[in-house]
Amino acid sequence: MSIIFSGIQPSGNLTLGNYLGALRNFSKLQDANECYYCIVNQHAITVPQDPQLLHERTRQLAAIYIASGLDPQKATLFVQSEVPEHVQLGWIMITSSYVGELERMTQYKDKASKRGDSIPAGLLTYPPLMAADILLYQADYVPVGDDQKQHMEITRDLAQRFNRLYGDVFKLPQILLGHDGTRVMSLQEPTKKMSKSDSNTTATIYLLDDPKDIEKKIKRAQTDSLNTVRYDTDCQPGISNLIEILSAVTDQSHEDIEKAYEGKGYGAFKKDVADAVISVLEPIQQRYHQLVGDPELDAILDEGAKKAHAKANVTYVKACRAMGL
Ligand code: ADP
Ligand code: NA
């Protein structure tokens, strides 16, 4: 039995990328492992958020976790800000970090470059807080998307640095990539990852999108004029992204998909990608709409916070003792 930790920010509507890269692996792990799944609202506030929306999205994200198969009896589901050890150990991790290594993070560079002269300091200190999230639970594995590799490396570096200075407190966690590390790209700029913070909504498939919209978005997805369904991310990034999506939702290899569409046009291919995506998302949407207004959700999150706190506190106290705090 391993310990699993992962988190998602309540910072927008969840995308197909979040589902295929992270969420759908969560429920697969819950039977055989001790799992902690977190709604990382303190990561979300590293950029300004509307308070009312942040609150609603936190709740919606909890409902999405459960609608995608997470069973609160088998896994601990909780909200980051309800377990104070996250920011407490986060501060210790910040003091163990170097400005230079934080400035080198590609996510920081991407997000900071969009903020002109007013770069929120929390964007820079995001990775040490993420390290604290994971290390508090002594996690063995962290199921996240391929885009989080660099943050996982710095998490291990910070843990090792701490252990070297103060003794063996933290387990070194490993990234756990689902389905060969599926990375879903933007439908309109297929060299950029699909993200819930992208303002171009036609480039993004949201988990709660109406099936008609999903079909429209995929139909209009950027492709090329080569007219062959081939996986080649350099020459055909748009088609490759659609192959990757179809492969992830139907569990077929890229080669099998290429063969199946030999001599067929992009129209038929896109239609099949849309149908396959819709058939995966529809049942999730149905469960979501039943759950989201249910007061039982609050009870689930309260219970989750208690369990998470009990586990996190043990590690936090150990870290404090080791440092002389
Ligand atoms: P976003 O970048 O959409 O705001 P988060 O940073 O909250 O998403 O990430 C939540 C999880 O979803 C992480 O495990 C991340 O690796 C995964 N993820 C996000 N976008 C993608 C994508 N386009 N493809 C695959 N996985 C993704
Ligand atoms: Na992220």
From TrEMBL:
<dbReference type="InterPro" id="IPR002306">
    <property type="entry name" value="Trp-tRNA-ligase"/>
</dbReference>
<feature type="short sequence motif" description="'KMSKS' region">
    <location>
        <begin position="193"/>
        <end position="197"/>
    </location>
</feature>
<keyword id="KW-0963">Cytoplasm</keyword>
<dbReference type="GO" id="GO:0004830">
    <property type="term" value="F:tryptophan-tRNA ligase activity"/>
</dbReference>
<keyword id="KW-0648">Protein biosynthesis</keyword>
<feature type="binding site">
    <location>
        <begin position="193"/>
        <end position="197"/>
    </location>
    <ligand>
        <name>ATP</name>
    </ligand>
</feature>
<comment type="subunit">
    <text>Homodimer.</text>
</comment>
<dbReference type="InterPro" id="IPR001412">
    <property type="entry name" value="aa-tRNA-synth_I_CS"/>
</dbReference>
<keyword id="KW-0547">Nucleotide-binding</keyword>
<feature type="short sequence motif" description="'HIGH' region">
    <location>
        <begin position="10"/>
        <end position="18"/>
    </location>
</feature>
<comment type="similarity">
    <text>Belongs to the class-I aminoacyl-tRNA synthetase family.</text>
</comment>
<feature type="binding site">
    <location>
        <begin position="17"/>
        <end position="18"/>
    </location>
    <ligand>
        <name>ATP</name>
    </ligand>
</feature>
<feature type="binding site">
    <location>
        <begin position="145"/>
        <end position="147"/>
    </location>
    <ligand>
        <name>ATP</name>
    </ligand>
</feature>
<protein>
    <recommendedName>
        <fullName>Tryptophan--tRNA ligase</fullName>
        <ecNumber>6.1.1.2</ecNumber>
    </recommendedName>
</protein>
<dbReference type="InterPro" id="IPR024109">
    <property type="entry name" value="Trp-tRNA-ligase_bac-type"/>
</dbReference>
<dbReference type="Pfam" id="PF00579">
    <property type="entry name" value="tRNA-synt_1b"/>
</dbReference>
<keyword id="KW-0030">Aminoacyl-tRNA synthetase</keyword>
<dbReference type="InterPro" id="IPR002305">
    <property type="entry name" value="aa-tRNA-synth_Ic"/>
</dbReference>
<feature type="binding site">
    <location>
        <position position="133"/>
    </location>
    <ligand>
        <name>L-tryptophan</name>
    </ligand>
</feature>
<feature type="binding site">
    <location>
        <position position="184"/>
    </location>
    <ligand>
        <name>ATP</name>
    </ligand>
</feature>
<dbReference type="InterPro" id="IPR050203">
    <property type="entry name" value="Trp-tRNA_synthetase"/>
</dbReference>
<dbReference type="InterPro" id="IPR014729">
    <property type="entry name" value="Rossmann-like_a/b/a_fold"/>
</dbReference>
<keyword id="KW-0067">ATP-binding</keyword>
<feature type="binding site">
    <location>
        <begin position="9"/>
        <end position="11"/>
    </location>
    <ligand>
        <name>ATP</name>
    </ligand>
</feature>
<comment type="function">
    <text>Catalyzes the attachment of tryptophan to tRNA(Trp).</text>
</comment>
<keyword id="KW-0436">Ligase</keyword>
